[in-house]
Amino acid sequence: MGEGQTVHLADDDEDDRMLIKDALQEANPNLTVIEAENGKELIENVKESGDLSETVVLLDMNMPKMNGIEAIQEIRAEPGLSELPAVMMSTSSNPELKKKALAAGANDFIVKPNTFKALLDVAKSILSRFLGKK
Questions:
Q1: DSSP of the chain
Q2: Are 102 and 61 in contact (CB under 8 A)?
Q3: Where does the record place the Response regulatory domain (predicted)?
């Protein structure tokens, strides 16, 4: 898979997914982004992946079928996936949502930025924090 670095991105909003993917790939052109529309699809994609050593999961809080909290709880319950870095995203800055996400096992919680420049900064930060080397 490319340079081996992968982001599993789950968001039910197609426009958000496209913008986030664009920002991630601008931050690292060699990055593979695997998209999902909901938590169930995300879990299936992650389980079908081979080597997850250079992988981070980026998921929206509110999605149909399986929301972000449920998806992270399922990831944390899987023996081979329990250490997989996962970052929750939301349009809401409600501190209760952040608490719930972190309690469910998210490594971080970010409020979706409203400009592409800010989104690019967030993408760079996530990649350097969880995937380190480029």
A1: -TTS-EEEEE-S-HHHHHHHHHHHHHH-TT-EEEEESSHHHHHHHHHH-S--TTEEEEEESS-SSS-HHHHHHHHHHSTTTTT--EEEEES---HHHHHHHHHHT-SEEEEPPSSHHHHHHHHHHHHHHHH---
A2: no
A3: 6-127
pLDDT digits (tens, 9 = 90+) for 18-51: 999 999 999 999 999 999 999 999 999 999 998 8
Task: Please choose, from the candidates 64, 72, 54, the residue with its C-alpha nearest in 3D space to the C-alpha of residue 109.
Answer: 72
Q: Which domains does the chain have, with CATH numbers?
A: 6-128 (3.40.50.2300)
pTM of the entire structure?
0.93
Task: State the Cα–Cα distance between residues 123 and 38, nearest whole angstrom.
Answer: 20
Nearest residue to 92 via CA among 109, 105, 80, 106 = 109
Q: Are 71 and 45 in contact (CB under 8 A)?
A: no
Q: How far apart are CA 101 and CA 83, in angstroms?
A: 15
